[in-house]
Amino acid sequence: MSPYFLILRPCPLYVCLFYGIAAYVDGPLSSLNKRWDAIQTVKNAGGGVATDRSLPQPLRRCLATELAEACERVDTVFLGTNGRRRELADGDLCKVTELIELRRLCVESDEITEDGVAGLMHLKNLEALVLRGRRLADAAFIDLTRLAGLRSLALEGPGITDETCRRIKELKELQYLSLSGTRVSDLGARELVALDKLEHLWLDRTRVSDGALRDLTVRPALKRLSLAQTAVSDRGMPYLKRLRNLTAIVLDGTNVSDEGLRFLHGMSWLTSVSVADTKVSERGVAQMLSAMAPWSFCSREPAAEKQRGPK
């Protein structure tokens, strides 16, 4: 028998001629069926998948694309709003949990709840997770600490509060964290101080204020900090001087003025400052630029990234 797995494309019923499919799939043929079903669920919703391309090229050329993906380890699943054909529900996520080798997962849907998210907490190989939805709340993340290998996490939803921060602080490998669009306050920000490796933090459209800066700035590893549309004011600006590795700060829509911006003049390591929709004047921007390195950037225009955090 040929060592390859052959699919006859013209045939409506694909014929499998390789007895060792388990060599490429974690488990028996039933596992392949579950993977196939999960991949089709993602694609039918307009999402995308990426695999580790581990299948030998001669074998991949013989297979239908969908089956080749099912045989390989599915590395990434994206179910964002762009190009999606329908709103995702909890049942869709239940099928995605069959892809136990997933390393990156992005889901954006206003229909997902704690019932759908619960199964995702078993994907222990996840390194990056993005979950955004209006129905997401703290109850969905009770078992978040199971995802101990996460390096990048973005959660967004009006029901997410400081309670979830108490679980996030146990994810010691986190380097990127976005809690934009949640109800996290200064109390929740204080919990994040426990994240020794955190370098990039987005807290836009949250309830944090100057108190959060007082606590967060004891972690000098931070390189990027985004606080757009929060209650941060001039009073919090002196704390930023503690962040000797900070290269970018977004203060759009805050209560910062020229007076507060002056506290950043001595931070020669800053390369990007965004102060759109604040009380900062053109003169204040000019003074900030004169205090920064020649290649640096300070603007009253909205930040290009729009503070949604990691993808």
Helix/strand layout:
Elements: H1 29-44, E1 48-51, H2 57-62, H3 65-71, E2 74-79, H4 90-96, E3 104-108, H5 114-118, E4 128-132, E5 152-156, H6 162-168, E6 176-178, H7 186-191, E7 200-202, H8 210-216, E8 224-226, E9 248-250, H9 258-261, E10 272-274, H10 282-291, E11 297-299
Parallel strand pairs: 2-3, 3-4, 4-5, 5-6, 6-7, 7-8, 8-9, 9-10, 10-11
Antiparallel strand pairs: 1-2
Helix pairs in contact: 1-3
CATH level 1 class label = Alpha Beta
What would you call the shape?
elongated
CATH topology: Leucine-rich repeat, LRR (right-handed beta-alpha superhelix)
Number of helices: 10
Compressed to H and E, one letter per element, the order equals HEHHEHEHEEHEHEHEEHEHE
Write out the strand line-up for the largest beta sheet, numbering strands in chain order. Answer: 1-2-3-4-5-6-7-8-9-10-11
Low-confidence stretches: 1-29, 59-64
Task: Name the descriptors.
311 residues, alpha/beta, Leucine-rich repeat, LRR (right-handed beta-alpha superhelix), eleven-stranded mixed sheet
